[in-house]
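Appendix B. One record, verbatim.
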Amino acid sequence: MTDAAQSLADVDLNLLVALDALLQEHNVTRAGARLSVSQSTMSGTLSRLRLLFEDQLLVRTGRTMQLTPLAASLQAPVRDILGRIEQVISTSEEFDPQRDSRTFTLMATDYAALVLLRPVRQALATEAPGVQLRIRATGLAQHATLLERGDIDLAVVPHGLSRTTDLPSEAAITDRLVAVAWRGNFEVGDSLTMDHLQRLPYLGYRIGSQASMVDALLREGGFTREADTLVESFVLGVLMLRDTLQITFLQERLAQRFAGPERLRLMEPPLTLPPLIETITWHPRATPDPAHRWLRTRILEVARNLKRSAPARDPRP
């Protein structure tokens, strides 16, 4: 046996799993919770890792722990190695949705979760009772990094975000923006003009530190006014319109869903806006995974079956 092979044989490969957790969490307690082991057990594992790599890996700075340069350089390769091991194991098995269990962490805005993932969840209730979904709404702009790290399994993101990466992706749903106001807002009628847009209070969206795709498209169309109300949720934006003079722009499917209960008036935008395309995207290591492949196929099937309902009428109060 070569020295390299002997060295590898002397290493407990389970240490890689613990190392990955420590590199991702930067915290012994959280890493232990992630692997369902005690803090003392994880501390002992960290000591073993420090001896193995002859490096501190994690050093305390004030109240937090920081990665050493070596530890930082290990993040991507360790995650890649574990991903490849998972891929080897998963590709040797078939996935039976009626019998097998699996938990997937998905990233999506509340819009995509409501329009696409809710009917997916409804379908899985009978088709795959052992499949659980965890839906995360934060960090949309960092979806590529989160997929690389294995923090999420799949992301439902606007095409404008997915096209900036080399990750595999497929278009899922297409929608369009419509202008929306409370039906009792008599400052507007059957159509919205640029004068309305400049004069009436405007409700906009921000996802994390970035303006939402909706507002980015409006800026490209020449609308540069600052929002009077700024929210981080499209559904919350819908619920903020009642009894106000605010106007906003929403995905048509979402606006139609709330038009009746929230007494909304849907109007054509005063400027031409491109269609909105939501894509599903994932890391290449998950491509051959039978369970992951099954879920991607099922999401796309549900997306294809989504039918655009007739535009909501505007019954007068």
